[in-house]
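Raw record, unedited: Euchromatic histone-lysine N-methyltransferase 1b
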Amino acid sequence: NSGQMEMSGETVISFEPRPVSPSVAAVSRRKKRKMGMYSLVPKKKNKVLKQRTVLEMFQRMSQSPPNPQVRDRTTRFTLKDSFCPPQSSESSLKKKWKKKVKGDHAWLRPSRKCKRKLKAKTEGLSGTVNVKRPVFLEYLLWCFLAVSGSVESTDTDMVQELPLCSCRMEMPKSREILTLADRKCMATESIDSQLSRCQSAVLKHEMMRPSNSVQLLVLCEDHRTGMVKHQCCPGCGFFCRAGVFMECQPEVNISHRFHRACASVLKGQSFCPHCGEEVSKTKEVTIAKADTTSTVPLTHGSCVPTTSEGKADTTTGGYGKADSTLPKPPRSHDTSVLPLGSRTGPVEAGSGTGPPPGSIKETLESVLLALDAEKPKKLRFHPKQLYISAKQGELQKVLLMLVDGIDPNFNMESQNKRTPLHVAAEAGHQEVCHMLVQAGANLDMCDEDQRTPLMEACENNHLDTVRYLLRAGAIVSHKDVEGSTCLHLAAKTGHFGIVQHLLSTGLVDINCQDDGGWTAMIWATEYKHVDQVKLLLSKGADINIRDKEENICLHWAAFSGCVEIAEILLGAKCDLNTVNIHGDSPMHIASRESRLDCVNLFLSRGADISLKNKEGETPMECCSQNSKVWTALQASKKQREANSNQTGPVEKLLNRDIARGYEKVPIPCVNAVDSEPCPDNYKYVPESCVTSPMNIDKNITHLQYCVCKDDCSSASCMCGQLSLRCWYDKESRLLPEFCNEEPPLIFECNHACSCWRTCKNRVVQNGLRIRLQLFRTQMMGWGVKTLQDIPQGTFVCEYVGEIISDTEADVRENDSYLFSLDSKVGDMYCVDARFYGNISRFINHHCEPNLFPCRVFTSHQDLRFPHIAFFACKNISAGDELGFDYGDHFWDVKGKLFRCQCGSSKCKHSATAIAQRQADSTPGDQQPSALPDTSSSTPSSPS
């Protein structure tokens, strides 16, 4: 009986010596090959019975060893039609015989070279071959079937049938081949007679090959999938991913690819080397370009910091953060062969320029004319091919694919889910970007790293592409997974033109911080881009912004050792003795990194070399003993000790941040006057608080709001109308025509408005942004000074404290910190900063003030409880003390206890000024009454 069973994924058939009936042949002809995955990897060591091949059985039956020529002929002749039913042109047995003699055994199959030799010998003897030999061979075959049928019950006589191709077979892994391949994919692709080698990493080490005539290969996952799908030609072993090749479809969802020259030839007829189907039933297929595993030339950008260039470790114990540059997915393969139609070489990323607009227009016109004039060929495109063509700048092919209906937003799973627009922007192909955008490509599509095409163009210094994408409407403020914007990426890589253009748009926040707290200025400082530092500084970049570890730009300049940038920062009034979260000053970092030039610069500017970090180390203890840095610090220390008797007390840092991190910027406390410690008789709060119910109306339905879609700069903004107009300019400063003496109420946009949180009518609600310092004054106790220049109209800080009623204020003993809200509506309320307050409680009175208060409403519009915001009424230089006018009412009450010590030439409340007023008001014949001077024995301000 005829039986069939599965052994290790292979089909084994036994035969009986009986005639083949028409019904059996028809059934066999309809039978389809099993297309499962064959694995030759041994699972466990089972006892395997020896199976004899067809050759062995022929040899057993023959008394003498067969001639090699006869052996070769047996693989070429088939059964005669006399043994087949008359109505069948090719019996099932004939097909099975073809398969058996075609691939005798996976391990006994002769090499292709040997076959060619045997074929030549056979053809040479073809003229003398007896015409009756096929009948003799058929007789031998039937004898063989009779012998095998007599012992059909045994497994040893079963004939093993293997597929013509071995595309779905896995061979055991070989350490030698894997080492030889360097754990890289060994697949080779044939593209229009050009060969390219894949270099992707290998995940699975089992080997595969399309046929026994091809060497065993270790393949990447993509090519393993292609092998299983019969995309590898069994004749040459090259993958058919692009170009012209033959395709056989035994079933609707199965296709076999091979080259026409690699087809199996039998008696002058060609057959599919995968399944044995006649070539006449196959079709010629043309596929444009290669898949993502094809050869893709790299676009060599300018020097971008890699993951090996970690963020600076500015701490004593390695607290540094890794660089935010993520490694790109492996996109490059062997670039020795460039596909036809691609660019001749990689784009120079340092130029930032592309083809002139005229050439782009001419290119687009020529492509469109060619598309309109030529009859398009019926090509089969895959969406992946659009990705490759966009990367290589093949405009005509991109246009053909878009016309063919391929989705321009197709993302490549194996390439970080990037789109064709990503790679076109990365390579600077402006015309390709234009075509993709016109076809509906999303300008702000993100890959797995949340990178947009604009970010790719900025990072790779393609200025023309950046300009085009911005004109097309790309969002410039988008952040990637690490919080980096386009400005961060351009500043980090040193692309001056990109940074300059982004800043000129007015759409970027120059002080925007990424997830590490780093700004564009910090990135430019760390990577020593001096020109960019100057540019950013001229555009108003804040050099005192702290990162997550409270480092400022000067810390990073010390780390990188760029003395030129350090000098620029010190010239911009950067604090030399500021410390980070680990207590390290820039001098600590310069000493630890052995930056001698920076150490000498800091010493010349009076850096404190006795300052200790949290590890208890001074800068001298952070460097190697007897090194050049240590010698310079030691010499400076001895010189300062010698001069210590001639100089006054040294400024001491008492607290690195009195706000305890509640403000966006730290507020240090220093004392260079006496031994007074940092004040701690109050609780620092960033917002006003209450200790009893105040019933502030915060109902959102009671808010008046705007419906602006722009930045609230138009006269139709409802919030601006409540304030008479919008009083802020695009730099968040009050307009010059704003009245400082009688300031109007300002209504900022709130959470009920339709505008964005970044609209220009939101300033006070953004909180403290100015670098301030609490310091000990000579005459007025504690005071506040600025560490940076403050332009006129800039918001400085808010007067924060405990909101109390006017009745409660009357019974409080210490009224030195009271600020009347003066709402003129209903009951009176005050803000008392005695027990709860922020930095504003230390601002002293000044008869020539540089600040003025203004009432502002942000999250609510209850007129009884406005915010008291301080704005600069004139330009304030870094290092100047801040002050505002307490008012005459304050001095009417407190003037009996102390006098003003502001030192202004226009002081109205000093002892001298009061005496002068009294002298002017006294008649000439009367002597003025003497007043005691109490300024030396009592505090002169409520600080």
